[in-house]
Amino acid sequence: MKILYKLKYIALSVLLVSALSSCDDTLPDVGGAAQNYNTAYGLIRANTNLSNFSKAIDLAGLQTTLDTGENFTYFIPTDAALDAYLVKSGYVNALGYPDINLVPVDALKQLVLSHVVKGVKKRVGKLAGIEADYLETSELSTMANQANPDLYLLGVNVTDGILKVNGSDKPAVGLDYFGNNGFVNVLDNVISLTPPAPVVSGLSAAFASPGDVISIKGSNFVKVSSVKFGDKAVTYTVVSNTEIQATVPADFGSYALITVQTAYGNSNIATIGVKYLLFGDDFSGSPTPVSTWNWGGNEDFQSTEQVNRGTKSIKRVNVDAWSGLYIGFNPINVADYSYLKISIYSTKTTRVLFSIGKTEDGSGKAIDIKAGEWNNISIPFSDLHTNELGTTFNSLFMKEYSGEPGTVYLDDVGFL
What pLDDT does 328 receive? Predict the structure, then answer.
């Protein structure tokens, strides 16, 4: 008996019931694609709802590559999804309509091959008592990955019979089409395996000296072309897609803005060092700040229990949830700095709000803190609403923001 599947743009639960109960060879076509033992490629060609993808195959010159008897699993966007992608990417004609003819051939070839897994024929809808090669949540190597190993793998998520692909929150619009050499899974999104711009999430050190090797942690470190401290390119080694080791240049002063550039864009800015050190082992020679007040806790400005650098740190015990600590210092100019720099250690995972010049929640930035390690934090002044401060500021405020009491340590507090 031939098992037939009918694709409908209706609720997935109805699709599942229909697919599980249907063994009727006379089911009507869907968009012109007969559910029979045609090849998977033939089903794509016959389906009028997938005409954009068929045209992409032709324009990319991939007919002979895909029209074979080998096994394939296809993930094909609907015409509407592909049209939306073309508009978003700027491939529109003079009248503003999407036009796939405007996509460069190389880009079109990569797009098509990113939707094809060769050598397997995997299905989504599981049938009771039927053993088959079902799709499971995993990463798959597409034909585009074979042509360009720098591309990301295809992320597939199958939960409760619902297929989502490439990180999309959009479920596939229906179950798979069945062919004699594979399956065609119809999607409501277009797959892109091209890495996005790099992201720097942290540095292994808050301070550095010339010749030091620091680790830059982040994501999308693919085809890295440069690592810069300010405008100076430095020596680096790409350890993985998530780590780069960079050598601090010989002319390094006390601080730098670090960026990573790849073939796919520039990263956000990470910072190392400070222009103005508010607290290292003390407050410019004084064991305590110019002024201080708190509620719901207590602090030791000369703690030796947990130290990031030097011999002392600020220990803050938050006895109560939502407790706060205010540190006052001599006024400094807002225009001279762009970041608040803090190294913070917590005995448990928590969340802390920081602000400068003010103590209101809306004037600060809440940061998630990992437990059991020093978190080197750089907060842009734009996140701290310094445009509301005037020309100077003279305070740093922190507030326990997880709703749970706990202990944190601060070190290397300053401004860059």
Answer: 97
With beta carbons less than 8 A apart as the criterion, state whether 72 and 184 touch.
no
Q: Distance of alpha carbon 75 from its chain centroid, rounded? A: 22
Q: Beta 297-303 vs 313-318: how paired, if at all?
A: antiparallel
What pLDDT, on a 0 to 100 scale, did the predictor assign at position 174? Answer: 63
- Asked whether 220 and 263 are in contact (CB, 8 A), the reply is no
Question: Could you give the count of Cα atoms lying within 13 Å of 115 in the half-sphere of its Cβ?
Answer: 28
Structure-block tokens of residue 298 = 């207590």
Q: Does residue 260 contact residue 200 with C-beta atoms inside 8 Å?
A: yes
| The residue to which tokens 């993930």 are assigned | 75
- Residue 160's pLDDT is 84
Neighbours of 344 (CB within 10 A): 26
Per residue in 140-195, pLDDT (tens digit) is 999 999 999 889 999 999 888 888 998 788 888 765 678 888 889 999 999 999 98
Percent of all residues in the chain with a pLDDT value above 70, rounded to a whole number: 89
How many Cα atoms are found within 13 Å in the side-chain-facing hemisphere of 20?
13
Q: Which residues of the chain have pLDDT under 50?
A: 1-36
HSE-CB of 311 using CA atoms within 13 angstroms = 2
